[in-house]
Amino acid sequence: MTSSETTTALIDCNHLVAKSLSRAGITHMFGVVGIPVTSLATRAVALGIRFIAFHNEQSAGYAASAYGYLTGKPGFLLTVSGPGCVHGLAGLSNAAVNTWPMVMISGSCDQKDFGRGDFQALDPVTAVKPFVKTSVKVTKVEEVPDAVFQLISVAGSGRPGGCYLDIPADVLHETLTELEAERLLDEAERKFVSEGVEGVKDAVVSKDDLYKAISAIRKAERPLIVFGKGAAICRAEDEVKLLVERTGIPFLPTPMGKGLLPDTHELAATAARSLAIGKCDVCVVIGARLNWLLHFGEPPKWSKDVKFVLVDIDEGEIELRKPFLGLVGDAKKVLKVLNKEIKDDPFCLGRNHPWVQAIMNKAKENVSRMEGQLAKDVVPFNFLTPMRIIRDAIIGLGSPAPIVVSEGANAMDVGRSVLVQTEPRTRLDAGTWGTMGVGLGYCIAAAVASPDRLVVAVEGDSGFGFSAMEVETLVRYQLPVVVIVFNNGGVYGGDRRNPREITGPYKDDPAPTSFVPGAKYHVLMEAFGEKGYLVGTPDELKSALTESFSARKPAVINVTIDPHAGAESGRMQHKN
After folding, report:
1. To bridge 26 with a disulfide, which of 8, 21, 158, 355 should be the other Cys (CB 3.0-4.6 Å)?
2. Cα 208 to chain center, whole Å?
């Protein structure tokens, strides 16, 4: 093709969207194709973007949200119009609540047919409004590059979150010349890459606030450092480690903050959590919110006199919690400055400090008690015996550590206490929203975001059921994911009713919490040509783990659990 032909050659909007994504550095996209976005996915693949096609937009959306967390750049979800968009809201809302960067793109009906009852018609911009930082509807092809770059920038700026792009079907069919496309791409890239998002600036912590924070920490008798997935997403692990080791202050990670510092670190207070939060007098909270996961920072779990120093990217979060002191900014940047000031006037509690000793002694005591329970081989399996075997198998793999995905009431709760995280961003679970159904989507995101790591899912049978069909997606893309299903016959463990509750015209129906006993979940993986395992003894589980971990291929291990093991609602009985 000659240069003159290149400048006059036409491309359609599908091609321009793909070119915009590629120019912006997007390498992966998740979704379900169909009218009117199939060509968009095909064009993206042709330009080097890996498209992971799912069976359901809900799982694809969860994958996109987790991808944003694991990589720090927005995960992309592509859906069809109407129902596809609605299904995708699960992932978009999950990104919003967990504050992960994500962009959802949906096709929609022709603009001239909006409101006339067209095929899969919806007002998607209104539908997504509660769950996004911003949304854009393009009305002509020329608006696409600007919209794509804007949404990528907004999704990842300030407190990360979800954004939405609506592209009507008639716009997808519009064309423009290659030359015009390149000009628009250059302008969009220059505008949003060099200038950033209007109104979003890096916060600068004042010297007075820094000195106030350091003074509070220095004078504290029982200081504590808490960090969460906000510190993980901004890659603040080196700064967190320096702060902990320079000051000698015990630390407590939130569930998905685990691994920023190894769970095995001598200053880890996870095994002494009640003592740590109940008795600390100054708590530095880094990239975590004082929400239900941290008991809102209120008595009786916390002391009424505790002083919170909150490090958060969002000033609104600090205004909501009204702490002793708020330091607004990216956790990594704030801690760099904080560590420098401490270095210039150092202090350290030391291992013989009474508070440090109390935390270490209580943690050692609780770990010893737990290890005593874990040491027993209980058959039929309770939750502890197989979890110990899984823990030991994961530890045996060394580094790079596998990414652990966990969901389910008992499976997730027990896993938080037993499984050991030693590296950052290697635990994904139900998160801030307590979302069930994230499992397989998270697994797929982890496998494509971190191809050097094995992915191990520890799933309750109820949690697995939400997205079980996506095992076919694992096989299709040959992703190194081992799914371990704790099969105890239902939600919490099958029929937990007392006899007085079994009454009424449908009393012979299974309990609302019951599934088919002895379900052969492992056969689902075999249906697609990969290996499934049914295990019920320690030796069978050890053998299955050794073989599947070594193979680094898709596998399902169906672990038979005593239906009477575990508790209703896990550790959330008071909410049910």
Report:
1. 21
2. 35
In terms of Cβ atoms closer than 10 Å to its own Cβ (0-12, 13-18, 19+), residue 526 is middle
> Per DSSP, which regions of 354-462 are E strands?
403-407, 427-428, 455-460
Q: In whole angstroms, give the CA distance from residue 251 to residue 284.
A: 9
Determine the Cα–Cα distance for residues 251 and 261; give it in Å rounded to an integer.
Answer: 9
List the beta bridge partners of residue 50: 28
Bridge partners of 381? 561
Take residue 181 and report the two structure tokens written for it: 């496309």
Judge whether 328 and 202 are in contact, CB under 8 Å: no
Share of the chain above pLDDT 90, in %: 89
CATH for 207-360, options being 3.60.20.10, 3.40.50.1220, 3.30.380.10, 3.40.50.300? 3.40.50.1220
The pTM of the whole model exceeds 0.70: yes
- Map tokens 């793909």 to a residue: 18
For residue 119, the model assigns a pLDDT of 76
* Cα–chain center distance at 151: 20
116 confidence band (pLDDT: 50, 70, 90): confident
What are the beta bridge partners of residue 283? 224, 308
Are the C-beta atoms of residues 441 and 63 closer than 8 Å to each other?
yes
Pick the CATH number of 10-195 from 3.10.580.10, 3.65.10.10, 3.40.50.970, 1.50.10.20: 3.40.50.970
**How does pLDDT run across 307-355, given as a tens digit for each residue?**
999 999 999 999 999 999 999 999 999 999 999 999 988 999 999 999 9
Query: What is residue 458's predicted lDDT score, i.e. its pLDDT?
Result: 98
Contacts 24+ apart (CB under 8 A), 396-401: 397/454, 397/549, 399/423, 400/450, 400/452, 400/453, 401/259, 401/426, 401/453
pLDDT tens by residue, 474-524 = 999 999 999 999 999 999 887 888 999 999 999 999 999 999 999 999 999
Q: What DSSP element (H or E) covers 495?
A: none
Start-end of H helices in 501-537: 521-527
Q: Are strands 10-12 and 75-79 parallel, antiparallel or unpaired?
A: unpaired
In this structure, the chain runs to a length of 576
Ranges of each domain in the chain: 10-195, 207-360, 376-575
Q: How many helices (H) and strands (E) does the chain have?
A: 23, 19
| Token representation of residue 185 | 């791409």
What residues form DSSP beta bridges with 286? 227, 311
Closest listed residue to residue 98, CA positions, set 153, 160, 30: 160
Strands (E), 304-349: 307-312, 325-328
